[in-house]
Amino acid sequence: MFKLFKPTYQADSLDSIPIEMLKKEGIRGLIIDLDNTMTPWNDLEVGPKVAEWFVKVKEAGISACIVSNNKSKQRVGVVAENLGIPFVYRATKPRTIAFRRGMDVLGTGISDTAVIGDQLFTDILGGNRLDLFTILVIPISDREFIGTRFLRRMERILVWLMKRVDPIEPKT
Ligand SMILES: [Mg+2]
User: Fold this and answer.
1) What pLDDT does 158 receive?
2) Which of 33, 128, 162, 172 is most buried per CB count within 10 Å?
3) Domain ranges of the chain
4) What's the confidence (pLDDT) of residue 100?
5) Ligand 1 center from residue 118 Cα (angstroms)
């Protein structure tokens, strides 16, 4: 049962995900979470490192799409527009429909799409249900919705358990 919560790859932050690795894995499209993955919760701006990373992604011929459960079209849209990438809001992750919508926008499929996010219960679980390449990042800030805070606690317990029972093998 842990398998569904196990990311394919882990990184400290979005901008530390090696683009060479994505290319090597045959990734052509990225479904990227917004809150706490790209920006602090409900923030409108991405940091300079993240912006630079998106430029390199584009140069590598990889498409990106924001897929966020955030209910504000305005908020998700502003960040996407600034980066010149498409977006899906009110996405209902971990439902698989959310990821299918992302792939529709990207024009990619199961074998060449990666999911990037900071939450095991939405981003990683949903991506794994479709057998996508999943990448877990450390959340940018602790400032977040109270319901999420509860899930975080559960996540920490789960991560601890997984480390003991089923360690992730380092990927080269
Ligand atoms: Mg998030």
Assistant:
1) 84
2) 33
3) 2-165
4) 98
5) 5
Give residue 58 CA to ligand 1 midpoint distance, Å. Answer: 22
Spatial distance between the Cα atoms of 105 and 29, rounded to a whole number of angstroms: 10
Contact criterion met (CB below 8 Å) for 101 and 67:
yes
2 vs 155: CA distance, rounded Å: 12
Those residues whose beta carbon sits under 5 angstroms from the ion ligand 1 are 33, 35-37, 118
- CA atoms within 13 Å, Cβ hemisphere of 50: 22
Give domain 2-165's CATH number out of 3.40.50.1000, 3.60.70.12, 3.10.20.740, 1.20.120.1200.
3.40.50.1000
| Length of the chain as a residue count | 172
Is the pLDDT at 13 greater than 80, yes or no? yes
Q: How far is the CA of 156 from the centre of ligand 1 (A)?
A: 15
User: Mean pLDDT of all residues in the chain?
Assistant: 91
Expressed in angstroms and rounded, the spacing between residue 18 Cα and the centre of ligand 1 is: 20
What spacing in Å lies between the alpha carbon of 89 and ligand 1's midpoint? 12
pLDDT above 80: residue 146 = no
46 Cα: distance to centroid of ligand 1 (angstroms): 14
Q: Which two tokens stand for residue 148?
A: 């999420």
CA gap 151, 128 in Å, rounded: 18
